[in-house]
Every structure is written in structure tokens, then in C-alpha cells.
Amino acid sequence: MHPFSEIETGIKNCNNHVGENMKIKSVATLMGMSALAFYSSMAVGSKYNFPEPQSVIAQDIYDQHIVLLWICLAIFVGVFGVMFYSILKHRKSLGYKAANFHHSTTVEIIWTVIPCLILVVMALPATKTVIAMKDTSSPDMTIKATGYQWMWGYDYLEGEGEGISFYSKLATPMAQIENREAKGDNYLLEVDNNLVVPVGKKVRVILTANDVIHAWWVPALGVKQDAIPGFIRDVWFAADNPGIYRGQCAELCGKDHGFMPIVVEVLEEEAYAQWAAEKLAASSGASQVASANIEMIADASEAIEAAEENSENN
Ligand SMILES: [Cu+2]
User: Rounded distance, CA 219 to CA 177, Å?
Assistant: First the structure.
């Protein structure tokens, strides 16, 4: 007797036994599924879920994540359903006689082909998204982010705000880190200088590092890329909404790896223009002060030299 016809007969017999129970079971399954669906719709705002997507790429990633979870759930229910059914209905105590076979080409082909098809179905949209993530062509502006142990440096290379350059360091007070003060809402996710960008513009971020490998990761914007010393990598994002989006270095980079957060502040276009103008004016003012200082130092050292010469002559 072919093993499968034996299983089929088993299923038919069981169907007769549990016929009336099937209805209750289907109702229970339906209720379970709708509870899960309800939960996953609630989960968007949950702190255990991804942050709310704020860019096209982040939305793509989020949607695929949810679809994959449903596929995983279906596989889980399918596999464990068959497994528990087999264990419960064919156990020794019911007097079930074990089938004695150990090879079936048909079943091996089925359990190879079906997972392959599932993988292909999952890989298609994922590949499309990865290709879109890598397309950093024709950006509205370009910013270089440099990873340091342990902070980020930002240089606005192209586009509005070109020439702006600053470091962005952790702003959480030591008292909070050492538990002498209550921890704030954005504990270890706040910096002194936010990376400010305009809303809706394609921002290309060029990444490198000055010492060890770091990684620039802002989940809400769907961006995560290693910053490698001596190499240039790039990513892009276009933020959908103004707001503040927080991220972290995502590469174990030394003892203060957890103390180099990233804060991207997305402003409306006019607000951004104003910020950029102020920042540029402040930095040109600062460089004027610096060059004035250098002149003063030069004058002073000349005066000292002259005084020394005088005293030598005397
Ligand atoms: Cu780092």
C-alpha cells in the first residue's frame, strides 16, 4: 500500500470522528486570525514595532516586513498544524500502526519546490527595494557624514547649505548616564547639533570614517550603511514629513559605540533655508574671528621678537 493512500484513509477516518468539531475549530481559527490581524494593525504605533516609516524606502521595507510576517505565520500554522495533527492522531496509545517507509521522491520534490517558490516570491520585491535604495543618482543635496570614535562629523558638500560643516556629539548629560538623575525621553538618542535637512528633498549621504568602521542608521528613514575608513559609501533618503528622526551607530566601534547617536531634523523648505543661512553666516563670522585672532597672535609674536631684539641690542 502506498504510504500516501494510507495517510488519506487515516484522514478520512478522522474526518468522520471529528466532523462536528471541525466547525468549532474553524471558528476558533478565524477568531485567532482576526485577533492577529487586529493586533498587527495596532502594532504600527507600538514601541516593539518598527518606527513609523518616513520615506518611500522605509515604507517599502515596512510593508515587506509585514507581508513576510504573514507568510511566516502561514508557514508556522501549516507546519505545526500538520505536525500536531500527526502526533495526536497517530500516537501509539490509539493503537496506530506506524508506516514503515523511508524514501519518497514525490514528497522530496514537493518540499524542495514549494519553499523555493516562497523564497522567489519574497525575493522579488526585496530586490526591487534594494536596487531603489542604491540609486543615489541626481540628489537635491549631498552631505558627507564621517564616523569618529565617538561622534559624527557632517559636511554639506552640495546643494542648499553647501559649506556648512559641524560635529554632532552626544548631548545626554553624564548625570543621567551615571544614574544620578532620571533618564530623559531621548536618553542616549540626543545630540548637540542635529543633522538638518529639508523635507521632500533627495538627500545623498556620503559615508566614510576616520578611525574604525561605524554605521549610519536611521530606521524611520530606511537608511543603514557602514562608514568605512578609506572608503566611500553612499545612501539616500527623502523625508516625507518634517520632524526629528533618531538613529544610532550600528557597528560595534569601541567602548563608546552606544554613545554616538544620529539625529536628523527635517524642516520645511523655508525653515531649512533660514537655518542654512544662519549657520553659514555664523561659520563665516567664526572664521573671521579666527583669522583676526591669528593676525593678532602674529602681531603679538612680531612685537615679542622686536622686544627681544631690542633687549639683546641693549
Ligand atoms: Cu560607531
Answer: 24
CA–centroid distance, 143 to ligand 1, in Å, is 18
* pLDDT for residue 1: 39
Residue 230, C-alpha cell as written in the block: 578609506
Contact indicator for 264, 245 with CB cutoff of 8 Å:
yes
**In the structure grid, which three cell numbers stand for residue 135, read together?**
540609486
Location of C-alpha cell 622686536? 306
**Assigned CATH topology for domain 141-275:** Immunoglobulin-like (2.60.40)
Number of H helices, E strands in the chain: 5, 10
Q: How many whole angstroms from 255 Cα to the centroid of ligand 1? A: 9
Average pLDDT value for the chain: 86
Strand, coil or helix: what is 99? Answer: coil
Q: Where in the chain is the domain with CATH 2.60.40.420?
A: 141-275
The pLDDT of residue 5 = 45
Bridge partners for 166 per DSSP: 154
Using one digit for the tens of pLDDT, what is the confidence trace for 189-244? 999 999 999 999 999 999 999 999 999 999 999 999 999 999 999 999 999 999 99
Tens digit of each residue's pLDDT (9 = 90 or more) over 142-174 = 999 999 999 999 999 999 999 999 999 999 999
| Ligand 1 centroid distance, CA of 176 (Å) | 21
Q: How far is the CA of 20 from the centre of ligand 1 (A)?
A: 61
Kindly give the distance from the C-alpha atom of residue 148 to the centroid of ligand 1, in angstroms, as a whole number.
7
CB of 165 within 8 A of CB of 284?
Answer: no
Give the pLDDT score at 288: 64
CA of 111 to the centre of ligand 1 (A): 43
CA-closest candidate to residue 264, choices 280, 232, 228, 240 = 240
Q: How far is the CA of 252 from the centre of ligand 1 (A)?
A: 6
Strands 141-148 and 203-209: parallel
Q: In angstroms, what is the span from residue 230 Cα to ligand 1's centroid? A: 15
Query: What is the Å distance from ligand 1's center to 99 Cα?
Result: 58
